[in-house]
Amino acid sequence: MTVPFIMALGVGLSAARSDPDSAEDSFGLVALCSIGPIVMVLLLGIFYHPSDAFHAAAVVPAIRTTYDVVRQFIVALPLYTEEVLTGVNMGILWGEGLGESAFRWLLVPIGAVIGYYIVKEEPAVQILNQQVEDLTSGTASRGMMNLSLSAGVACAVALAMARVLTELNIY
User: Fold this and answer.
1) What are the pLDDT digits (tens) for 104-116?
2) Residue pLDDT, tens place only, 128-138
3) How sure is the predictor about 1, in pLDDT bands with cuts at 50, 70 and 90?
4) Rg (CA), the chain
5) Fewest CB atoms within 10 A around its CB: which of 50, 97, 106, 156?
6) What's the predicted TM-score (pTM) here?
7) Distance from C-alpha of 52 to C-alpha of 47, rounded to nearest angstrom
């Protein structure tokens, strides 16, 4: 939420300046809004190592029939309705379930697909790509930059998933 807000605020302020450098300033601001959170998360992962982190596995009820599935669904529906709106809880449950199954290797391509489409649809990235295309007079096309960024994030997420599954040191 903060990236689009800060980006819109900065682009509006630089447009209000109406001097020759305002387009370059908004380009830099969009770049900082796009790369800043990524760099901060990377730095957090490098320097922050909590020793008191705790995770408790959820208890999964025994399911034997379709009736059990429907009953569990109806019982849990009110509880999970709010959480499903954000998608976080379901993603965690699916990830845990898949991560504990024999098909846990599917996390690698699933993560890659999710990473690809998150970047492909991110408004801040689209604006940045448009500004780069405008500033380079089409030499660096918006479509190629979007494809490159999406593919790069897809590879990074796939590598992160492989690291989680294999405990591979990617540094």
Assistant:
1) 888 889 889 988 8
2) 788 878 877 88
3) very low
4) 21
5) 50
6) 0.52
7) 15
Residue 66 host element (H or E):
helix 66-86
Q: Which residue matches tokens 């199954």?
A: 101
Single-letter amino acid code for the residue at 125 = V
Exposed e or buried b per residue across 71-105, where buried means at least 16 C-beta atoms within 10 angstroms of its C-beta: eeeeeeeeeeeeeeeeeeeeeeeebeeeeeeeeee
Question: Residue 157 is inside which H or E element, if any?
Answer: helix 142-166
26 and 15 Cβ atoms separated by less than 8 Å: yes
| Single-letter amino acid code for the residue at 38 | I
Residue range 4-56, pLDDT digits in tens: 655 566 666 666 666 666 666 556 666 666 676 777 777 877 777 767 666 67
Distance CA 171, CA 49 (A): 15
Burial class (CB in 10 A: 0-12, 13-18, 19+), 127: buried
SS3 158: helix
The string of DSSP codes covering 16-50 is: HH-STTHHHHHHHHHHHHHHHHHHHHHHHHHH---
Average pLDDT over residues 67-92: 80
